[in-house]
Specification:
Length: about 230
């Protein structure tokens, strides 16, 4: 075998390994230390779709469907899926209508809280909320209706002693969206490591796309040197 060909074969193998590692490690799991939420990154759950009101597809999260939406024959669905991602291996898929979505209630004390997270809207609009008074009162972030793009939402609120917890809801009917990187902390300062200036979401399919293009280019060169 010619030295040039041996060199190319070794280079091909090395680049293949580096590219493969870059793809498989494209979305590291970010530490949840300091997050008041359980499973705020939705890494724990089931890939089987879950509908209606009750336990959601995600550990420590419940889902709520407005009775009027259920009576109208509409459906709320949650599911753990593998794309689009901004970190880790899973993201939350939510499909529902106005005021349908996820919640996580705990016995938190009164005070100021900051909730933030990413949403990726396919249709409709989505927002985050903080609920109190057994869910009868809530304040919401601005809603995102930007399609097919990760948008970071944030809400700070001083809540009474009956503070329940966060909401991840559809803002209007016929909404389909993904949620990632939910973070809750006390105070008006956002301590989330998922903030845009600290974290840049890169959907995993893009990494596979670049990986595929690179492999096509390398195969073409390999044939040229064969």
């Amino acid at each position: 075998m010619k030295p040039a060909k041996i060199f190319f074969e070794l280079t091909f193998i090395l680049i293949f390994i580096i590219a493969l590692i870059s793809v498989t490690q494209a979305n590291p799991i970010i530490s949840q230390d300091g997050n008041l939420l359980d499973n705020g990154n939705f890494e724990s759950g089931v890939i089987t779709p879950v509908t209606g009101t009750g336990n959601s597809a995600f550990t420590s999260w419940n889902q709520w469907q407005q009775p009027s939406n259920a009576d109208a024959g509409l459906t709320l669905t949650t599911q753990q899926v593998t794309s689009p991602l901004i970190e880790g291996n899973y993201t939350a898929y939510i499909s529902g209508n106005h005021d349908d979505g996820l919640f996580q209630y705990n016995a938190w004390s009164e005070g100021t809280y900051t909730l933030s997270g990413w949403v990726y809207v396919v249709s409709g609009a989505a927002h985050l909320g903080l609920a109190w008074d057994n869910g009868h009162e809530a304040a919401y972030s601005s809603s995102s209706s930007t399609l097919n793009q990760w948008i970071f939402l944030q809400l700070t609120m001083t809540v009474p002693s009956s503070f329940d917890g966060p909401l991840v809801y559809a803002a209007i009917n016929d909404t389909e969206f993904y949620a990632e990187g939910l973070w809750l902390n006390t105070g008006s300062e956002n301590n989330s490591p998922f903030q845009p200036d600290r974290f840049a979401p890169v959907p995993l399919p893009a990494a596979f796309y670049l990986f595929g293009l690179g492999m096509i280019w390398l195969i073409g060169l390999r044939r040229k040197f064969s």
